[in-house]
Amino acid sequence: MSEARPYGIMAEFTTAAAIIAAARGLHLNGFRCVEAYTPFPIEGLDGVLHKARRPWVPILVFVGALVGAVYSYFLQYWAAAIDYPLNVGGRPYNSWPAFTVSSFEITVLFAVATAFFALLLFCRLPRLYHPVFDAPDFDRASQDRFFLCVEARDRWFDADRLRDMLARYDAVHVALVPS
Amino acid sequence: MTEAVQQEGYAPLVAPEVTLSSIGEQISHIVLQPHAPRWWWVGFSFSFTLFLLLVIAACWLFINGIGTWGVNIPVAWGFAILEYVWWIALASGGTIVSALFYLTRSEWRSATNRIAETMMLCAAAPAGLMPIFHIGRQGLFYWIFAYPNVMGIWPQFRSPLLWDFVCVICYIIMSIFFYYVGLIPDVATVRDRARTPLKQVFYGVLALGWRGSARHWATYKTVYFIMAAIMAPMVISVHSVVGLDFAGGLTPGWHSTQFPPYFFFGAVISGLALVIMLTLLVRWGYGLHSVITERHMNALGKIMLTGSVMLTYSYAWEAWGPFYGSDVAERTMFLERVFGLYGWLYWTHLALNAFIPQLLWLPAVRRRPLPLFLISAGIIVGMWIERFIIVITSLHRNRMPSMWGDFYPTFWDWATLAGSIGIFLMLFFLIIRFLPIVSIAEVREIMHREQGG
Lengths: 179, 453
Known about the structure:
The structure holds two protein chains of two kinds. By secondary structure, chain A is α+β, with helices and mostly antiparallel strands. In chain A, about 45% of the residues lie in helices and about 10% in strands. Chain A has two domains: about 10-55 and about 130-175, no CATH class; about 55-125, no CATH class. Chain B is built from 16 helices and no strands.
């Protein structure tokens, strides 16, 4: 067991302030593969731990919306003007004002669906099992405790050194997470 | 006065004795407890009975056709249509509370938004059923979908009725996404508290393996914000298009440019009324007074009042329009609506939706559960009557005097109404039994801001 390479080392904190301080400290010390697990979103924590990324979610949602708009308008245009042209009171076959309503609804439907699948994609969900679930006390990460995990793939990973460091940041409990 | 302002400005949204773990425990306990409380069983059995009535009414309808209802020419749109409008308005109220007030960063929304979203999903069920019942050949309702078929024809995309169908189906699907995204962190909390294997698996699968990592939360916040920003205009469009169903017809009393906003105002007030009633019910039943406080009721009451004022404006316009215009049919219909066979309904709905809600100007009324509950119940009845007036009185005095006629509902009309309430309540009771009814993560965020730490 002790020979096997662990997934990482997990520290447990009792307050949000403590975990932010610890996250800052680890980052300043050069640790880059650190992840926090908290019961509610803590503002700025992601910014401390991870490099800023391009806003991929909004970009994807925009693309999804665009696909929905083109699809829905084209469907109506093709059905009403090409496949089965029906003269209604002499109005143009391509009656675009009348087509905007359905186009809008389907556009926003595609946008919301894309947002949902983007959430799954960027969170790598569904993934029912993950090594961090084996960390002691981890079920409290969704209740009242704040966890910080330095992953073993970090180039400066050193379990003994991290143990001391995390304890200095008021971690109430530090433990190795088996992989 | 200053005291009231102060209290409003500084009273905490979450009672000070609530902690991060106590809120999780309280909400999880509701869904994890092995036996539901007695009031839940009473409510569920009652609604299930009504639901069975709906099943019988639907079977009777399928066997005999819509002649079992009171609809006929000239009043060919009856209870099914007016209840469709009524239910979709109630559903919209849920989205207004959860999406619109998320965008305005109204913190009070957080304890009530899940109740509102649950309500919206449950109300979508009867709203979706009613038009299907109404069309007569229920088995062929799928003809309205745009799909390639052997008949070689397409739905009429220029018709407001088709727009309405597209709106409603998109709205229901989007609502499910929106509801589920908000639910994921909370079912993760429940999962970690579940102690029996069955519940662990059930909530574990629903939570999709949510870990609450910093990256998860950052993505979640972005996605939730985008969804709210889309849902808010979406819900306005949904109910406006319901208004267009009517405005697109030439019938006096329908053919009016004010219908889309008028219907949306109706959705605000009736949706809020139902949110208030259900919030009070859940708060009383599960003892959630520390999470759903007076401040929440106060805020909901104010919005309902705003809805009432906007609706009163529409009523005034509706009364003034026929006399400003030159259409004799509009005037005839309006006078018949106010003083004719259904005149008493007109005055009742005016009292329930426009006059009585003005009591909400008084802070004391907004803060007390009982008056708030009664006013809300009055509004829900009043809004049903409003739809009755719009749908039926307009048709019964159409342009040609030779096609004037009255409408009398039959037993099966009333059975369908009762049954639609049954299916709504049954779904609501089921969801509040098995899924977290308060957004735990959001309440924790507020506590974090209010209490520090």
